[in-house]
Amino acid sequence: MARKFLYIVAACIILVIAGGFALALFPGQLTRLAMVPSAAFTPVKPLAANAYEDPKLWYSRPGIGTSDPARWQPAYAGDRGLLPTPAEPKQRFAVFFVHPTSFVSRAAWNAPLDNGGDPEAERIAKIYLRGMASPFNAATEIWAPRYRQATMGAFLTDAPEGKKAVDAAYADVREAFRFFLSSVDPKTPIVLAGHSQGALHLKRLIAEEVKGTPLAGRVVAAYVIGWPVSPLHDLPAMGIPACTAADQTGCVLSWSSFAEPADPSLVLDAYAVTPALDGKLPGTEPMLCTNPLTGLTGGTAPASANLGTLVPEDSMQNGTLQPGLVPARCDMRGLLLIGPPPEMGSYVLPGNNYHVYDLPLFWANTKADVTRRVDAWKPAN
Fold first, then answer.
1. What integer pLDDT is reported at residue 341 of this predicted model?
2. Spans of all domains in the chain
3. pTM score, two decimals?
4. What is the 3-class SS of the chain, one letter each residue?
């Protein structure tokens, strides 16, 4: 159970609720008090097999039009100068994107879907999609489901209700994925992407629904961002290797961003004691770190290689692309270090953790990476 990994995210919220001094004295107690649901766990009834036929259960899918948040396209700030025009992919492809946690209520263990869902969780999810799913908007189709996500507090408790909430959320993601596959042309290559809780579900989805099936040959790449991936204990269970070449297909990319000086102790401690997909503990094994400026596992790249960081407005509703803002370096622990803290807004987490900005920091490079891998993908003979 990944009970502690989202602690660092919750801690940022508690800074506002309880105040920094109290948090410093009693971080675990205050976090659990403020975030873990007080309500009894109510078993989540499985969705009907055809539930995802309903367009209302999708934030993004073909036919939504201009209101589709994943189709948002930011502009470059000022004069783009000598920046090349981004290339368009040479073939059609589809994206399945799983959004991160936007539900933080203590009133329930899982977000509701009926009656329009929780208004604040819905609002935040759409903002996340604008910033995190939009790098994939060169796709012919983008599918991003609504799902009964586990509330933040479900990750902060050893109680069995927490695991039940995460499992229920995953069940929705799995059903959405199956409908996605039934709706996309079986010859179309696919890109899988998710962030934070979405990446956690994506890891399991690949292990249970993709590994060892003909579908594996259609996977261009899996962007498992903002959640640790263990090279020794997760990748074999997923049946997909790490990306070690910029034009490699059928591989996994993953990173977690920290400015310097970084204090990743909470994340590393949680990673060490959280069972991986094979049930074993990663311990001090480095996390998988893809350098998003090169598309390679590990290594260093200067800020000049950054084609455009999506710098948001305070509302997070809009933003502009700024080239050359941050470098990227994978360290020996598997963290992605981005140099001195860039000005990205109000949601940087303790320890210089840029979790919320994992994809916006490398927006244009991620878009170029997807296009490059799609162009390199070839169907199995």
1. 97
2. 7-376
3. 0.92
4. CCCCCCHHHHHHHHHHHHCHHHHHHCHHHHHHHHHCCCCCCCCCCCCCCCHHHCHHHEEECCCCHHHCHHHCCCEECCCCCCCCCCCCCCCCCEEEEECCCCCCCCCCCECCCHHHCCHHHHHHHHHHHHHHCHHHCCCCEEEEECCCCECHHHHHCCCHHHHHHHHHHHHHHHHHHHHHHHHCCCCCCEEEEEECHHHHHHHHHHHHHHCCCHHHHHEEEEEEECCCCCCCCCHHHHCCCECCCCCCCCEEECCCEECCCCCCHHHHHHHHHCCCCCCCCCCCCCCCCEECCCCEECCEECHHHCCCEEEECCCCCCEEEECCCCCEEECCCCCEECCCCCCCCCCCECCCECHHHCCHHHHHHHHHHHHHHHHHCCCCC
